[in-house]
Amino acid sequence: MKQTLLAVALSAALISPAVTAVELKTEEQKVSYSVGLMVGEQLKTISNLDFDTFITAAKTTYAGEEPQLTPDQVGEIMKAFQERQVAEQKKKFDELSQNNLEKGKKYLAENGKKKAVKTTKSGLQYEELTAGKGKKPTAEDIVKVHYRGTLIDGTEFDSSYARKEPVSFPLNGVIPGWTEGLQLIKEGGKARLVIPSELAYGPGGMGGAIGPNETLIFEVELLEINPKAEEAKEETK
Fold first, then answer.
1. Does pLDDT of 31 surpass 80?
2. How far apart (Å, rounded) are the C-alpha atoms in residues 127 and 143?
3. Catalytic residue positions, numbered
4. β-strand 167-170 against 156-159: which pairing, if any?
5. CB-hemisphere CA count at 13 Å for 89?
6. What is the pLDDT of residue 208?
7. Three-state SS across the chain?
8. Among 139, 109, 112, which residue's Cα sits nearest to residue 127?
9. What is the pLDDT of residues 157-173, one digit of tens each?
10. Are 223 and 145 in contact (CB under 8 A)?
11. Residue 23, C-beta contacts closer than 8 angstroms, at least 6 positions apart
12. pTM for this prediction
C-alpha cells in the first residue's frame, strides 16, 4: 500500500485542468517524468476520483505527515471500493451478455426465413454458397479450409483470407458449430454458417474480439479433407 501511495504521489503533478510542458534535461527529471506517465496511465482506470482530496492525501504521504485515516481504515475503504467495482463490472458484463443473446436470437430468426438457409436441430444455420463435388468430412477427419469470421454487425474478427494462408485442423477439435457445419459441406464447396452462441463460445466469449453470447457468422471454403500429413503438420503448428 505504501509503495502504491508513493507512486500516486509522484503522479500528482499530472492531475490538473491544464497540463503544461516541462523541461527534461537531467536524468532525475526524465526518470520522474517517466514514472509519472506510467502511474498516470494507471489512474485512468479509477473513475469518480476527487482530485483535490487525492492530491492532499498524496502530499501528506510523500511528506511523511500524519494521515487522517489509519492503515486499517484505508484497507476497509479500498476493499469496499474494489467490491463495488467488481459488482459494477459484472453488471455491465451481464447486460452485454443478455443484449448479445437477444440480438443473436433476432438475427437467427430473420436469417432462418431465407429460402436458401437450412436450420439444423441444434440451431445451426447453413447456406450453401458454392456446391462442392467431393465427399463430406466426418468429425474424425482433418480439414483444410479458408474462412472469414464476423459478428452479426459485420465486424470481422478473424480471416485466413486476410492472412493469405488456409488452415488445417482436426474437425473434432473446434467449436461445435464448426464440427457440425463442416460435415455439411462437400470438398471443394463453400458455405455460410450462422452459429448460435451455445454452439460457439457461449457466455464466456473469446478474448476481446468475441463478446459473451455472441452469434457468429462464418464463410467457410472446404479445400481438402485429410491433407498430406507433412502439410497438415506445418499448418497446425
1. yes
2. 19
3. 147, 157-158, 175, 201, 218
4. unpaired
5. 9
6. 86
7. CHHHHHHHHHCHHHCCCCCCCCCCCCHHHHHHHHHHHHHHHHHCCCCCCCHHHHHHHHHHHHHCCCCCCCHHHHHHHHHHHHHHHHHHHHHHHHHHHHHHHHHHHHHHHHHCCCCCEEECCCCCEEEEEECCCCCCCCCCCEEEEEEEEEECCCCEEEEHHHHCCCEEEEHHHCCHHHHHHHCCCCCCCEEEEEECHHHCCHHHCECCCECCCCCEEEEEEEEEECCCHHHHHHHCC
8. 112
9. 999 999 999 999 999 99
10. yes
11. 29
12. 0.73
Q: What's the CA dihedral at 208, 213, 219, 220 to 10 degrees?
A: 90
Record the cell numbers describing residue 192, joined without a space: 455460410
Arithmetic mean of pLDDT, 95-101: 96
Residue where the block lists cell 458455405 = 191
Per-residue pLDDT, 227:
85
Return d(Cα 209, Cα 206) in angstroms, integer.
Answer: 6
d(CA 57, CA 8): 10
Query: Mean of the per-residue pLDDT values for the chain?
Result: 87
State residue 37 phi and psi, 5-degree precision: -65, -45
